[in-house]
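Protein in question reproduced for absentees:

***
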Amino acid sequence: MSSDDIHLPSALIGHTGHDFPWDIVVLAVLAVALGFRLYRVLGRRIGMQGVRQARPPVFPGAAGQAQTRQTPPPLPAAAGQGQAEPAAQVDYDIPAPATRVGGILGQMTQLDGSFTPQGFLKDAETIFRQVVPAFAAGDRAALSGLMTPETEEAFLAAINARTEAGETQRSDLRGIDSMAILDAMLVAGDANTQTGRIEVRIVSRQVNMLTDRQGEPVQGTDAVTEFHDLWLFEREFGASGTQWRLAASCPA
């Protein structure tokens, strides 16, 4: 507010030349009025300042009583029926029939009309999925019949050595990305039988870790890691009741 906005009563205008300080009186009255309005605005508490409130309970219930967590609402019907997520498709790499390896695979088809490279890789995938967790758990019964006698003996010896050392193996197979046939051969045997051998490169994702008695890591990591392995499978053609078995394995 400027001095031009101050209008004195007409009766006082004529006495402005006297000694009484009417302008000071008017300014003092305005100052008191302004101060009163500021007090009404600023002199009160704002919001919840200085107010102590009790924290409400997280879950409904009477104060001072033990609170129990409410049961969550049921999941949708499709999610609550135990439906497993379908496994990712494994990429099968099969040599062309015109190649040397493809020609040997063709000879195996002539020895056994039910043999196909695609079907063989499916059987090899099944064996891989069975052997990896069984070896980690030391399940000797689960390994029986999946390997040749010499290979099974080597696997059992590794399990025994691990047990004596107090070590624990964790092998969590998260997925198989690809399986490729690298080589194949046929070896003549006795009584008109031939032994077929097929070498496969397997690319998988695993959590693979070996820990000691105290649970400290000795080898591997608890992170998902990509593994490249070479597995050699063997089967005898010409004999009844034979199937593909693991004959050797090593890192690729």
User: Anything to note?
Assistant: Residues 41-85 have pLDDT under 50 and may be disordered. Residues 3-42 form one domain. Residues 51 and 157 are 73 Å apart (CA to CA).
